[in-house]
Amino acid sequence: MSEEVRFKSVVGPELAGSIDLPEGEVRGWGIFVHGFTLGKDSPAASRVSKQLAREGIGMLRYDNLGIGDSDGDWGDGSFTVKVQDTVRAATLMAERGTPADLLVGHSWGGAAAIAAAAEANGVRAVATIGAPADPSHVEHQYDAVVDRVLSDGQHEWFVGGRTLVLKRAFVEDVRRARLHDRVCELDRPLLVMHSPNDDTVDIANAGEIFRTARHPRSFVSLEGADHLLTARGQAQRAARIISAWADQYINA
Predict the structure, then answer these.
(1) What is the number of other CB atoms lying within 10 angstroms of the CB of residue 190?
(2) Which residues pair with 157 in a beta bridge?
(3) 205 bridge partner residues
(4) How crowded is residue 129: how many other Cβ atoms within 10 Å of its Cβ?
(5) Which of 50, 65, 79, 146 sits CB 3.0–4.6 Å from 72 for a disulfide?
(6) What range(s) does the AB hydrolase-1 domain occupy (predicted)?
(7) 33 neighbors 77 (Cβ within 8 angstroms)
(8) To 10 degrees, the CA torsion angle through 184, 190, 196, 199?
């Protein structure tokens, strides 16, 4: 079962979310932060969150600005906006009486989860799946249009079967983002998960994040998984690992 919710982005428009309600005994609550242009219904977001709910951990997953069911223009977002909206999601969870113990971030969302953890109300632990060590890693996805964006202020970008408008402020914000310091300063337990088969974000990124983080930190190799966790059973497997790892923190 799921509950539909909406809350305001830090830049104004409403964001759409689904809370996958926990089955059986409630062990805790969390937030799933999706990848760059993916959304709350992408395989990783949906399958990981639903499996965690089966394990007793209720999960909010939501669409970022201009994605899926959310309002606004994707191009008005940025890494900073994604981080701040994750904090707003945590505020929503706290206000409904189910504060989020856990942040789970996939791909670019993993970087955002780390960056948001210190400000997110009630978060006790962070897990990343296929996260880049530097948010600017995503620039290779739009490198064909980035010069036009910087010279003209914005430019259309066709990705994932749809057209998005990439804006100069977005590109500049991503280039300014520095995750290294956030990882160094993270005072939450961190689980880094990555597949050696990931051909979108190389597993070397996981090594860099893990080496930079302080204890308690853990690393799990998701061998056999692709970056988007579309292979049968891989998202559920990742969720079960997160569930077991997080148990001592969400029940503290």
Answers:
(1) 24
(2) 164
(3) none
(4) 34
(5) 65
(6) 31-231
(7) no
(8) -70
In the 8-state DSSP scheme, what is residue 105?
A: E
pLDDT, one tens digit per residue, over 187-237 is 999 999 999 999 999 999 999 999 999 999 999 999 999 999 999 999 999
Residue 252 has pLDDT above 70, yes or no: no
Take residue 55 and report the two structure tokens written for it. 């394990």
In this structure, what are the phi and psi dihedrals at residue 94, rounded to the nearest 5 degrees? -65, -40
What's the sign of the alpha-carbon dihedral 116, 118, 120, 125?
A: positive
Instruction: Tell me the whole-structure pTM to 2 decimals.
Output: 0.95
Please check whether residue 166 is in contact with residue 104, taking contact to mean a CB–CB distance below 8 angstroms. Answer: no
Rounded distance between C-alpha atoms, residue 148 and residue 130, angstroms: 29
Distances (CA, A) of 34 to 24, 31, 67: 26, 10, 11
